[in-house]
UniProtKB/TrEMBL annotation:
<dbReference type="GO" id="GO:0043885">
    <property type="term" value="F:anaerobic carbon-monoxide dehydrogenase activity"/>
</dbReference>
<dbReference type="InterPro" id="IPR000674">
    <property type="entry name" value="Ald_Oxase/Xan_DH_a/b"/>
</dbReference>
<dbReference type="Pfam" id="PF20256">
    <property type="entry name" value="MoCoBD_2"/>
</dbReference>
<dbReference type="InterPro" id="IPR046867">
    <property type="entry name" value="AldOxase/xan_DH_MoCoBD2"/>
</dbReference>
<keyword id="KW-0560">Oxidoreductase</keyword>
<protein>
    <submittedName>
        <fullName>Carbon-monoxide dehydrogenase large subunit</fullName>
        <ecNumber>1.2.7.4</ecNumber>
    </submittedName>
</protein>
<dbReference type="Pfam" id="PF02738">
    <property type="entry name" value="MoCoBD_1"/>
</dbReference>
<keyword id="KW-0500">Molybdenum</keyword>
<feature type="region of interest" description="Disordered">
    <location>
        <begin position="1"/>
        <end position="21"/>
    </location>
</feature>
<dbReference type="InterPro" id="IPR008274">
    <property type="entry name" value="AldOxase/xan_DH_MoCoBD1"/>
</dbReference>
<dbReference type="Pfam" id="PF01315">
    <property type="entry name" value="Ald_Xan_dh_C"/>
</dbReference>
<dbReference type="GO" id="GO:0005506">
    <property type="term" value="F:iron ion binding"/>
</dbReference>
<dbReference type="InterPro" id="IPR037165">
    <property type="entry name" value="AldOxase/xan_DH_Mopterin-bd_sf"/>
</dbReference>
<dbReference type="InterPro" id="IPR036856">
    <property type="entry name" value="Ald_Oxase/Xan_DH_a/b_sf"/>
</dbReference>
<dbReference type="InterPro" id="IPR016208">
    <property type="entry name" value="Ald_Oxase/xanthine_DH-like"/>
</dbReference>
<feature type="domain" description="Aldehyde oxidase/xanthine dehydrogenase a/b hammerhead">
    <location>
        <begin position="23"/>
        <end position="138"/>
    </location>
</feature>
Amino acid sequence: MTETLRPSVGTAVPRKEDPQLLTGKGRWTGNIAPPGTVHIAVLRSPFASARIESIDVSEAAECPGVVGVFTGEDLAGEWSSIPCAWPVTEDIRIPDHLPVAVDQVRFAGEAVAVVAATDAASAQDALQHIDIDYEPADPTLDVEESLAGGPIVHDGFGSNESYTWSLGTGDVDRAFADADVTVSERYVQQRLQPTPLEDRAVVVTPEPTGRGFTLHSSTQIPHILRSVLAGVCSVPEQDLRVVAPDVGGGFGGKLNVYPEECIAIALARRLSVPVKWVAARSEDSQTMTHGRGQVQYVELAAREDGTLLGMRVRILADMGAYLQLLTPGIPLLSAFIFPGVYSFGSFAIECKGVFTNKTPTDSYRGAGRTEGIYGVERAMDALARTLGMDPAEVRRRNYHPPFDDGATTPAGLEMDSGNYEVALDKVLELAGYERLRTEQRRRREAGDRVQLGIGLCSYTENGGLSPSKMTAALRLGAPGWEMASVRMLSTGAVQVVTGTSPHGQGHETTWAQIVADGLGVPLDSVEVVHGDTQSAPYGLDTYGSRSAAVGGTAVYLACEKVLSKARTLAAHMLEAAEQDLEFSGGAFSVAGVSGSSVTIQEVAGAAYLAADLPEGMEPGLSEEQFFDPPNFTYPFGTHVCVVEVDTDTGKVTIPEYFAVDDCGTVINPAIVDGQMHGGIAQGIGQALYEDAVYDDDGNLMSASLADYLVPGAPELPDFTLDHTVTPSPTNALGAKGAGESGSIASTPAVVNAVIDALQPFGVDHIDMPATPRRVWEAINRARST
Ligand code: MCN
């Protein structure tokens, strides 16, 4: 064992999970193939809206290797509707969502039949021999047209509105009446396709005893998946073990319950053999829930000096054809965060969830909060332009003053801690803001072909979805606690079982750091077990930047319990009073008495030997902890993006990018920086490159990576990152979320920078992604008016 640095928390220790992943020893669902596995392929609707008149599977059933062909009707008795866990209003319309369509399809890609075969290629080949007679209808593809009377997606509902939800504080009409200036903007959040490296995959194996199943899935949420699938497929929850082995990214796309998981359970039950499905990239693009998908109408009212008086917002949210796990709740996350980091008197927002004949939308990194912060931060720049103020100054003027134990936002949220101006000043200094503005002036005066743009975004976000009382009040059908158990083994090694389910975030490292400090043990002696409902019967998995603040705190508190018991036993072993013991470097000693010490590993040995325990003490050294935090955490910061825009071609490049973020106490700076890098790259992707494009018939035209551009290293600059540290009072670690900040802050910073670069042409708006063509057209439109 290697002794590592102490304290471990706060140091950039290398990721414990990397050697296994980098040497090809990862355990991926797609590599799991129990003997006798049957492979399935799914036939998908080529129409966005159509009636299924008839299905003939007879030819497919005769194809080589085919074990069975199943339609929605064949399987109807195997399941109930896939539920939506966030019915945001009492009168929300939630359509039935069967894993395989029966008589109507509502988006291109919806499952209509399944082939099971002895190998994946045979299953795929047989799909071509299924004969379906469709009666196609005109689809509804655009939220504004959908509400204005587009073809109805779900006949029984009579309109395409799923729900209307609103929130208001203060007298917003008065604020607009009293305002010196107002801005009124319309922003479109295009749909995005989550693109984890590993496509979705599922393997369901019937237990040899004949009772129950083990389901391996490339999922972010093994625990939630188990509960929901148990209900949908009528399997007693205790008879369903869900394992998420190594998972190659999710970004919110794997925070869901998918038809293929239900199909695999149904067929494993029918055929009594292991059943496996692995998505093709294009299938995932079509069927993994899309992110974003909003049209936002944003109005600000302000005084002449830039002081905000009020904000009015309307969101039309594209739900797609069905409500998945959290679909209707995502716009609410936007609504609550829409006022951003600013303090002002009145706020009114209305969200409408709207059905379209497209892939359902749901969580995508920064879910809801990226959209909200984008809206407010674009509008703040519009206000700065209207007033002729510097964008940094208009932000500074309106920041909520510093607070370290609670402050209420215009949306009525109680935030934990924040100090926005410090982060702004630090990033402006880091970026050399004056230097950048000077260079910008020089290029403008010289009429250079390549203009410079500087874009800012100040953000906060509610990370760490919790506490349970609050999620219940929001009608979200999932609590917000997390659990951990910390077992010190008789050997002195430590096993941590966590309810979080990392899929790239590095919990094996960061939880081990918390334990190394908490118990004074070497980092290498800590093993972190996750992603298996058999090891951790309860857990709430990983999403919403909750794991450090909630799951990490559960680990920390479990260590405290272990240490407390160890202290009692150590006192007994040293024949000393507990209050006379000191604990340092992994050993207990009696204060002021030299040579009297016992290591925690020796204490663990004695705890299991149990030959001489204090009166009433149970053997062993293992503790479990549930932690339900009192609030969300509110990370914050300011990003500065520098762009160069070639005004002849419209091409945008990002030569420099600066960020100062505050996620409270940092457990591992290298991991946090990595999270920032990935998040910023994703935000740049939305701002400049990524777009889920549909044709007029509702076919997804961007289903392959040849058509959907995810930025890679060549498109990205070196990021210059720094931090401020404002601990969260909501948890013992003082940690706030770090996993989504990059994607929340970067999108508006980039778009604001592009518009800033185009000021010499009078361009005030550009839709995302700001492709060369869009930028070029905006310049030419402005030139010709
Ligand atoms: N961390 C830290 N100090 C803090 C906060 C966090 O060292 N103050 C560390 C944590 O211990 C953890 C990592 O940073 O190792 C991220 O922690 P946290 O912010 O709690 O976020 P989660 O672990 O809950 O991850 C969820 C978040 C989300 S919502 C998306 S989407 C996302 C993301 O993380 N998807 C990812 N990061 C991703 N990274 C990868 N590689 N792949 C994805 O799919």
